[in-house]
Amino acid sequence: MSPRKIGVTELALRDAHQSLLATRMATEDMVDACDDLDKAGYWSVECWGGATYDACIRFLNEDPWVRLRTFRELMPNSRLQMLLRGQNLLGYRHYEDMVVEKFVEKSAENGMDVFRVFDAVNDPRNMAKAMQAVAKTGKHAQGTICYTISPVHTVEGYVKLAGQLLDMGAQSIALKDMAALLKPQPAYDIIRGIKETYGEDTQINVHCHSTTGVTLVTLQKAIEAGADVVDTAISSMSLGPGHNPTESFVEMLDGTDFTTDLDMSRLIKIRDHFAKIRPKYEDFESSVLVDTDIFASQIPGGMLSNMESQLRAQGAGDKIKEVMAEVPLVKADAGHPPLVTPTSQIVGTQAVFNVLFGRYKKLTAEFADLVLGYYGHTLGEVNPEVAKIAEEQTKKEPITCRPADLLKPEWDELVRKTKELEGNDGTDEDVLTYAQFPAVATDFFKHRAEGPHSVAKSFAELAAEKEAKAKGATAAGIGTVTYNVSLGGRTHTVKVERA
Length: 499
Hints:
- It is a single chain.
- The chain is an alpha/beta fold.
- The chain contains 21 helices and twelve strands.
- The protein has helices at residues 15-20, 34-39, 52-60, 64-74, 97-109, 125-137, 155-167, 184-198, 215-225, 246-252, 264-277, 294-297, 301-313, 320-333, 343-357, 365-371, 384-394, 411-419, 428-436, 438-447, 459-476, and strands spanning 4-5, 7-10, 44-49, 80-84, 114-117, 140-146, 172-177, 204-208, 229-232, 258-259, 480-487, 490-497.
- The protein has an eight-stranded parallel barrel with strand order 2-3-4-5-6-7-8-9, surrounded by four helices. Strands 1-10 form a two-stranded parallel sheet. Strands 11-12 form a two-stranded antiparallel ribbon.
- Strand 7, helix 8 and strand 8 form a beta-alpha-beta unit.
- Helix 14 packs across helix 15 (343-357) and helix 19 (428-436) crosses helix 20 (438-447).
- The longest helix is centred in the last third of the chain and has 18 residues, at 459-476.
- It is globular.
- The protein starts with a strand and ends with a strand.
- The model has no long low-confidence stretch (mean pLDDT 92).
């Protein structure tokens, strides 16, 4: 009997650098790997969505639609995959249904194949319209379960959610573990539950970060339970708050009843490319390697690296442990939402406010909306005292309906506003960019013609830094070295001349 083939989704072009390098990687540093990515034998290549759209216009002066079209041209044989936040699209609020439909339509036109649709609070109502829009384009709609741990989240609940997503038209189910919380046995139980309830032919994709150090084993148990596709990142862009290494996963299956059929010679070329590129972004590197405290804090990889960077920028880097301890408390008060964009940022920012100003002395507008239901229904009960504070501070009533039902049609007004902006190109793509990031897009359109502004160091700068360090080490090797030596309870000072 031949081994069962396990598909692999490569994350190097999106989530890997989002989690490790604060999403700063420029398209120019990815294109040379695309031919090997296209021919390595992956089930899909994740290359768009998540925070990359925002980062393109905010930090890199890149048009995200040009990035997508570039990947489509360079990887003609691959399924291109994106992460889509349901009714939030790639922004940080809910958008009216027509905007959602337009975004999906244009993404498909520009080359996207697989839409991994999720909602930050796992509210199916917030995924329905995006899933319908994907089905309308004929592309692959992947319904997503965001995994978290809490007193109200159970295996049975996750299996039930998978059924709701399948009923909505999901062609596959993604089990998304953004904080590396998914241990081997729960992964096995959830996947077996889905397969046994809805059929062995139900495709299940598994996405795990590596931050806690346990999830390579999780992937092994997941495929033993019947998982069909797993997400990995090429080794030179893996581990820490990122993901498990692609090559390690391939080798792990050697001699088992499973295989990936990936071309290892191509993987080595991809590995070597990013090994060369990664040092250019050392200023954005996360310091985390393995952190089992995350089983308590539940902070996902991308959130962790960005939180570190933001706290350092504010001169509050010494508060990181306090903030991490506060995060699960805020999460519980908000009804135990999974921590994924935008809830990770919302809960994380409120945790920062609580540490700096006192618990709930000052609520962000987004956190108030979260506890009042404006982001959707959370599985756990919101702390009523916190909800009362939110009502008092915002003068808003809590809601129970689908949040997007409260939104008025906005497409025509967005078109009008975009056309008034300097540098707009008159396309629906520009309207969608403005819709999601109005302030940032306004500035981006003005400067777009200047071309990409990479924030990476050049190879020349890296070489100069290396030379300076070498000279410093040589200079340090000249002169006298002083040693303090303790003998018999007495300390002696000894000076030694360097040769």
